[in-house]
Design brief:
The structure is a single chain. With 443 residues, the protein is an alpha+beta fold. The chain is 33% helix and 25% strand. The protein contains 15 helices and 20 strands. It has helices at residues 19-26, 33-36, 54-67, 78-90, 99-106, 108-114, 134-144, 167-181, 187-195, 262-281, 315-321, 327-335, 363-366, 369-372, 408-422; strands at 2-3, 11-15, 39-42, 70-74, 124-127, 148-152, 162-164, 209-213, 219-228, 231-243, 246-255, 287-295, 301-307, 322-323, 344-345, 349-357, 361-362, 378-380, 387-388, 396-405. A hairpin with a 2-residue loop joins strand 9 and strand 10. The radius of gyration is 21 Å and the shape is globular.
């Protein structure tokens, strides 16, 4: 279940690491080797056949903290940050966010309710997945407008994000969503029942949905930063890119954010500061946190979602395109109470592209793993034998493609080429031919 590091020095406990997390941690620059040797990568499970039990995992982490003199925790994923917050609650000397400050942004409805500003929020309605009353569903859809967008309140990786154009669509989606849950109580629900105030936040204990207005006339950006000892620090703004003919399908993240309006950049950081300030009031501290936002043509900023963790998928781009751009190294500093150096763009263009499919089946039926080995730019999100399921209008992401260079056009054409080479069923994926203007290489 874990990789044990030798030595008597205090352990740095890394929660729920993926293979990609371990790879990125090994690549941290400018830290002594003995620091890396103190990393304890405590995996969620010990093997493919073992199911993950979140509460049991937290109990085991508590034992490790006592036994191995853990003084610092690093968490990168949604689940990892939840565990981190529970351990901070148990061991106040360890730096990190409170349970409430993680759960509120993690839950998309409460995030809208308590963190968004009135100016930056979207029309939204909470949907009970057991609710099939046609009149109530029609009222909800009438309020947000047609089309609307529906997604699980605690969904990740664009799972279950779908566009809704009618009450019939809404009913069909709820039926599909309930079939995916299979009547099981999620680990997140068990977690909130044990650690959170479900009297104050009753929807924490439900696998609910949020219906929102659809935004189709905007760019999207990720505003990234961190909190250290109650103070907000800015990192970078990157641009989120979607496929033109598949507007709910994520294409990737581009750096830098293209704008010649310094006032817009200032408004984005002001929106970020206002949101994170509210998270700090709920105990958020000593961790990265990023905000995804829409930017409409008139310059209005609307919040898409808030993630109380590091923006891990873009780590390679930060490292290639920024001075002091390694967020893992920064998180090590943050966990020690030290302010990291400022993250400064070095004039390179970077792209973290998704390899998306709408097909289902075994991973090896959809992705050519032998071909993947020819491209060091590719970072896998699936393995041989993984079952790729229907993920709604967002599609399923099989891998990341990380490229940086001086020329924006060359970088994007390299991305398209790699996707074409490694996909076994490219007809089920968006491609450059789907774009309205193939000369517009990013959006």
């Amino acid at each position: 279940m874990d990789c044990v590091m030798e030595g008597n020095k205090p352990t740095v406990l890394i929660l729920c690491p993926t293979r990609r997390d371990e790879y990125h941690a090994a690549k941290i620059n400018d830290i002594p080797d003995d620091t890396k040797q103190r990393f304890r990568f405590y995996k969620a499970t010990s093997g493919e056949n073992e199911s993950f039990d979140l509460l049991r995992y937290i109990e085991l982490c508590e034992k490790i903290i006592v036994k191995e003199n853990v003084q610092q925790i690093m968490s990168f994923s949604d689940i990892g940050v939840l565990v981190h917050s529970a351990l901070v609650q148990k061991f106040p000397s360890i730096k990190g966010p409170s349970v409430e400050s993680v759960l509120v942004p993690f839950h998309k409805y409460y995030s809208r309710l308590y963190l968004d500003s009135k100016e930056a929020t979207l029309k939204h309605v909470y949907i009970d997945p057991t609710e099939f009353d046609v009149d109530k569903l029609r009222c909800a859809l009438d309020y947000v407008g047609v089309p609307g967008v529906i997604k699980p309140c605690t969904g990740t990786d664009s799972f279950g994000v779908s566009r809704i154009s009618s009450v019939a669509d809404l009913q069909e989606y709820i039926t599909w969503y309930n079939s995916q849950r299979l009547g099981k109580q999620s680990d997140e629900v068990k977690f909130t029942e044990k650690y959170a105030d479900t009297g104050m936040y009753p929807y924490f204990a439900n696998n609910g949905l949020i219906l929102e207005e659809f935004v189709d006339d905007a760019k999207t950006v990720t505003i990234d930063g961190y909190v250290l000892q109650g103070e907000i620090f800015h990192w970078q703004i990157t641009e989120n890119v979607y496929w033109k003919k598949h507007p709910l399908t994520f294409k990737g993240c581009a750096m830098p954010f293209r704008t010649f309006d310094e006032n817009l950049t200032a408004r984005l950081w002001a929106t970020y500061d206002a949101i994170i300030g509210k998270a700090i009031e709920r105990g958020f501290d000593n961790q990265f946190i990023h905000v995804e936002a829409f930017v409409r043509p008139n310059g209005d900023v609307k919040v898409m979602e808030i993630n109380p963790r590091m923006f891990t998928q873009i780590i390679p781009i930060y490292r290639m395109c920024c001075e002091n751009g390694d967020p893992m190294a920064a998180l090590l500093d943050i966990g020690s109470g030290v302010r990291p150096g400022p993250c400064i763009w070095n004039d390179k263009f970077g792209f973290n592209g998704y390899v998306v499919t709408f097909a289902t089946g075994k991973a090896e039926e959809l992705l050519d793993f032998d071909e993947v080995a020819n491209f060091p730019e590719v970072s896998l999100r699936c393995c041989h034998g993984d079952e790729i399921r229907d993920c709604g209008d967002g599609g399923a992401n099989l891998a990341y493609v990380n490229i940086a260079g001086k020329n924006r056009q060359d970088v994007m054409m390299r991305y398209y080429y790699i996707c074409e080479k490694i996909l076994k069923k490219p007809e089920f994926s968006p491609s450059i031919e789907d774009e309205e203007d193939c000369n517009d290489y990013v959006y």
